[in-house]
Amino acid sequence: MNRFLICSALALGLAAVATAGAAQQAETPYDAVDPTIGTGGEGHTFPGATAPFGMIQLSPDTDIKPFKQSYKWAAGYRYEDPTILGFSHTHFSGAGHSDLGDILVTPAVGDDVPLDPGDPAKPGSGYRSRFSHATEIATPGYYAVTLSDPGVRAEMTAGTRVGVHRYGFPTGTPAHLIVDLRSSIYNYPGKILWSTIRVTPDGTITGMRETRGWAPARKLWFAMRFSAPLAGHAFVNREEDVPYKGFQGPGRGDDGVAMLAGRALVARLDFGALVRPLEVRVAISGVDEAGAIGNLASEPGDFDAIRAQSHAAWDKALGAVRIDSAPAMRKTLYTALYHSLLAPSVYGDADGRYRGPDDAVHKAEGFTFHSTFSLWDTFRAEHPLLTLIQPEQRNADFVNSLIASRQHSPFGILPVWQFNGRETWCMIGYHAVPIIADAYLKGIRGFDANAALDAMVASADYEPYGGLGDYKKLGFVPIDREPEAASKTVEYAYDDWTIARMARAMGRLDIATRFEKRALNWRNSFDPASGFVRARKVDGSFRTPFDPTAINYGSDYTEGNAWQYSWFMPQDEGGLIRALGGDAATVKKLDAMFDFDNSKLDYGHAEDIAGLIGQYIHGNEPSHHVAYLYTYAGAPWRTQERLKQIVDSQYKPTPEGLSGNDDLGQMSAWLIFTSLGFYPVAPGSGEYVIGRPFVDRAVLNLPSGKSFTIRAEGLSETNRYVGQVFLDGQPLTRGFIRHADIEAGGELRFVMQASPNKSWATAEAARPFSMTGYSAHR
């Protein structure tokens, strides 16, 4: 065994002793987080190092698959994979689509350095390495693993715009780094449009690449510096149609630096035999090389300094919620909180510059530009959670970033699914709208409200987008002109309602009146005969044949079917209850959804359909509010039962612990809210529907300095029902709390019992908000 491995074994042994001792003490929120949760199964999370909302996500990539096979590797890492390619600097957390994986770096040793990844089934065939999970450490802002083939201990940490690697090489052996600019998640021939790499006289490595993947023409620059001087280097172009493959040593560009350009670049960086670990500081920029160098300078410090800063940032962010619960649930919840604090990520440089959707460079004034907006997912619970636990400035940054993106958009509308400042046009709706409205209605300021409302209206009125021209004329999206028309109709109607809410609060009554009318358009896609939301044709007829269980991409519904989408009118669930025939009929239909026999159905063709409980699909977002609808129908104890069923079956503190894609924090935010005992069914309403708690005690440490405490007296596996609820010591007889109740500080106390309380919060007056009420008598 070489000297490095002996030291590593000793360090691991000491760490085990320290861990055993620490386990006897109370875990901090930081210590409770396990970033490997969701790295297996369908979670699509990554275990690597990042700061809260950080621009850098420095994480291992275990494999790069051709784009048609890349879905499971959307985060670059699969827990079950036996090898690691290297460590790249950009990753999505839980996305349902793959991309990123920029600037792959990996260590190598010896005299013969491979420049290709090799075959995972053939050790030594390339630069990838085998590893063992026993050598991995993953905590917020820090990741470490031993790469067995080169015998290198690799450590990663990250600040907001800087990632730092540290490699412990075997003593007496030539040390190298490989920088592969070909490597990319969602990989396919021709994805790399162009790339460059160069080394300056002071040893700084800089470069860029432009890719066409999920987002078109995405540009990224990087700057890289080392704690030891370069002893040599080789830059190689692997393009088959380029006869000149590269150069070694003295090649120079016009400005006197060694450089290479092409579409398949890989570099070998030589450091000789090292006597101490090699540190590599890397920054990225969407603007230019100067931006990457400036970002590198904006966060000075070595590996340990950046790690300490990241640890402190995570301590503060995770400390927004204090949770007392059983150890497994506590780990699951703090990891969920961690995952909810990763995006939207910073994408503006330290000097305020950023690249917008017009591919031009702009300067943010008074805010930090953020991107990675998975809006179809995150408007539901992720952003409402952030309005509670993040400072007003951070939430204002999100809104300002959305407004700025609209101002720079060639189409003049808000983002749909944006990352790195680029629009993907993925998913449906204009869900930047409820995020802005919900923030404004909760009192978040620091942005131009009139500009925000103008952007919201412009997006809702942009007729070329998603059948909006027909929607405005007909009151629904016709399926014979636009795919997924049933889903689009009901999602547009909800978004319209949030426009109306914000406009009315601002005194813009003409806009409020127009969009309140549009908010009822969900009724135009509801079929009273079947009790389902269905797609209609231009002539007004419902499309046939109709199968409420059918799921096909590009059909009547978006990543779902009639069972999930027939409940999506969060602004008017009372109107739906009335249309279904009342409370009893609604409860019966909800039960039919959860209890549906799927044994004869096959959804294997639909990647996003995971976490099925009957026709309830927790692994995808359209179902997320449905369990709470029993409360709207006067049966809150049935909500409590279904929530127990969902939490027990869909979340675990293991790599396979997420039943579906975390979708940039939405799955995690759902669990955080649900564990506290309430959920924002209709963001924009200012209300949270009460379910049941899954923690003994939790404290929300609000940005205002106040705190809101949740207590669950008598909570146990037996006592799974809510007997009574008290708000600030007074009995609460309604099935919801208001945002203002939380912001005021105080306490929400649940008294749990073994049998359901079938009289609590059942009266219509005790039910959550609905535009048109619950019965014909109201």
Automatic annotation (TrEMBL):
Superkingdom of this protein's organism: Bacteria
Signal peptide limits: 1-22
Keyword Signal: yes
GO molecular function terms listed in the Swiss-Prot or TrEMBL record: hydrolase activity, acting on glycosyl bonds
Domain Glycosyl hydrolase family 92 N-terminal per the UniProt entry, residue ranges: 33-285
EC number: 3.2.1.-
Alphabetic keyword roster: Glycosidase, Hydrolase, Signal
Coiled-coil regions listed: none
Domain Glycosyl hydrolase family: 292-753
UniProt xrefs under InterPro entries: 6-hairpin_glycosidase_sf, GH-type_carb-bd, GH92_a_mannosidase_put, GH92_N, Glyco_hydro_92, PNGase
EC supergroup of this enzyme: hydrolase
The protein's name: GH92 family glycosyl hydrolase
Species per Swiss-Prot/TrEMBL record: Sphingomonas oligophenolica
